[in-house]
Amino acid sequence: MFITRDDFRFKASNFDLTESHNVVRILAGFMMLPHAASKFAAGGLNPGTVAFFAKAGLQPAEFMVALAATAEIVGGLCLLFGLATRWAGLGVAAIMSLTVVALLNIGPFKWLWNFGGIEYNVFWGLTALAVAITEFKRRAGAAHPASAGLRTRTA
């Protein structure tokens, strides 16, 4: 149930694009990278992002921006490569949840992302959560196939 060495093994099966859960996991990881990149500008922290964090009450803002960017990069790369997937999915879902709370703290409710809303963050947070749940279920099924009630593929 906890992190094992197996969580950090690169496996060819993690890149089998005929498995839809791999496609969703890879896309979720890939989409975290531009989200993290937006926290940087001109070789340093993005002043607009630092101001947003400060306005949302996330202090010290510079440290919190750097922490968020690091978590998004690590979580995104783990999802992208299928490393510690269940934990990375939970971490990314938590990051996106915190982003939603921060957005709601600074102003009125808005849904559409292009108007400063929470749509993007809710979508990717729920996607990451679905990836984590799928991986937890897959691991439980591999450990206890008879009790998991999972169907196995036949040729």
Summarize this structure as a short list of keywords or feature phrases.
single chain; 155 residues; mainly alpha; two-stranded antiparallel sheet; 2 strands; elongated
Can you describe this structure?
The protein is mostly helical. The protein has one domain. It has helices at 20-37, 47-55, 61-81, 85-106, 119-143, 145-148; strands at 40-41, 44-45. The protein has a two-stranded antiparallel sheet. Helix 1 (20-37) packs antiparallel against helix 3, helix 2 (47-55) packs across helix 3 and helix 3 (61-81) packs antiparallel against helix 4 (85-106).
Quick structural summary:
The chain has six helices and two strands, in the order αββααααα. By secondary structure, it is mainly alpha-helical.
